[in-house]
Amino acid sequence: MSDCRRLVLEEFERFMPREQRARSQLYDLIYDYPLREAKALRPALCIAVCRALGAHLGTVLPSAAVLELYHNAFLVHDDVEDGSERRRSGPTLHRLHGVPIAVNVGDAMLALALEPLLENTRILTLGKALGILECIARMARESAEGQALELEMIRNRTWTLTDQEYFRLVHKKTSHYSFIAPARIGAIAGNASASQLAALTRFGTWMGVAFQIQDDLLNLAGKEARVGKEIDGDLWEGKHTLILAHALRNASEAERQEAGAILGKARPTEQHRGGDADAVIAGLRQAGRISHTLAAELREALGVPDESTRLKTARDVAFLKGLIVHYGSLEYARDTAARWARRARRSLEAMNWLRASTHRDFLFHLTDFVVARDN
Predict the structure, then answer these.
(1) pTM here?
(2) What are 297-348's pLDDT values in tens digits?
(3) Contacts for 19-24 with beta carbons within 8 Å, 24 or more apart?
(4) Is 33 within the bounds of a domain?
(5) 3-state helix, strand, coil in the chain (%, to 5)
(6) Contact 15, 116 (CB under 8 A)
(7) In degrees to the nearest 10, what's the CA dihedral of 256, 257, 261, 262?
(8) Distance from CA of residue 65 to its chain's centroid?
């Protein structure tokens, strides 16, 4: 993955517009997330599949770079949507530069991804180039639909999911852009048959579920120095995870009601912590400048609800985490992730048409890595 990350960054240099880059900060910001410590999992998977089918690196490298651009664009946009505070061991882009600039950087990454896809018409056959473009289009659509599905669940305060509902969400949000599309693009560039593409699609589906469950586990049980993002961020943001779904299914009715009320609250932001009317009123009250009764009257007169009733607190998050620990939801998620990873490995073992090589070995190691990784 480290080798592939280096290749992809070099490929970025090749198709970044040099003249514009010298004049605009935009291109420095485009490099912000890619230059932070990262795995480059998606381009590595794409390249490994292509090479294991016997094709040359040059046939797939532009498409692999596109996958990494899309991934980083999705991260920038997701961080804005979720109000995330940290990404890859540093502040999120919108925390550093504001939401408008962050959104534009994500949009610019998606725009830059078009040129390498057009270049495929020159380095591959037209049929392969169109096949890769179709795959990218499907990946982008599925990812947007997955994000919409989760945002709709949050809006409707739907917190208790079955495993199948969670797997459907992950299939759209994670499996397509993290595993299915990279594997299929590598296979198309490697001249795979229809049956081989179908086999790799199944492999990518199962890998995506295992990967996302491990991601959920790391968010709650990992160490921030290793994970590179905010610990317990999923609980602060109200993310739908297999872990939380399992805990809520096993909780008592009273616990479910309290958890639902907590999850329906927004997470505090910098604005909430220091700049709006409620924060000013709370500060005056804490300093003894106004009485509790006057504070309540001011909120009512200004139409400002008390932040404590609509924003999550550390105590709220601790309550959710307590449910997860009490009902053994972390262990349940680990077992489920391992089961999906084994399923993916068995499907890979049946692909005797992949050439014995470092690239094939990497794919096998990946089935262990998705559930053993610590970042």
Answers:
(1) 0.85
(2) 776 676 665 545 578 889 999 999 999 999 999 999 999 999 999 999 999 9
(3) none
(4) yes
(5) 75, 0, 20
(6) yes
(7) -30
(8) 18
Kindly report each contact of residues 92-96 with a partner whose C-beta sits within 8 Å and lies 24 or more positions away, as own/partner.
93/29, 93/32, 93/33, 95/270, 96/32
Domain assignment present for 272? no
Is 320 inside a domain boundary?
A: no
Range of the domain at 184: 2-228+337-372
Mean pLDDT, range 155-182, rounded to an integer = 93
Vertex 85, ends 75 and 99: CA angle to 5°?
Answer: 65
pLDDT of residue 272: 47
Q: How many CB atoms lie within 10 A of CB 373?
A: 17
SS3 248: helix
Domain count, the chain: 1
Look at residue 273 and tell me if it is in a domain: no
Q: Which CATH number belongs to the domain containing residue 97 in this structure?
A: 1.10.600.10
pLDDT at position 273 over 50: no
DSSP labels, 317-373: HHHHHHHHHHTTHHHHHHHHHHHHHHHHHHHHHT-TTSPSSHHHHHHHHHHHHHHH-
DSSP-derived 3-state class of residue 90: strand
> pLDDT per residue over 97-139, tens digit each?
999 999 999 999 999 999 999 999 999 999 999 999 999 999 9
> Does residue 214 register a pLDDT over 90?
yes
Q: What are phi and psi of 90, to 5 degrees?
A: -145, 170
Would you state the structure tokens that stand for residue 199, as one six-digit string? 């086999």
How many other CB atoms sit within 10 Å of the CB of residue 146? Answer: 20
Closest CA to 45 of 63, 27, 19: 63
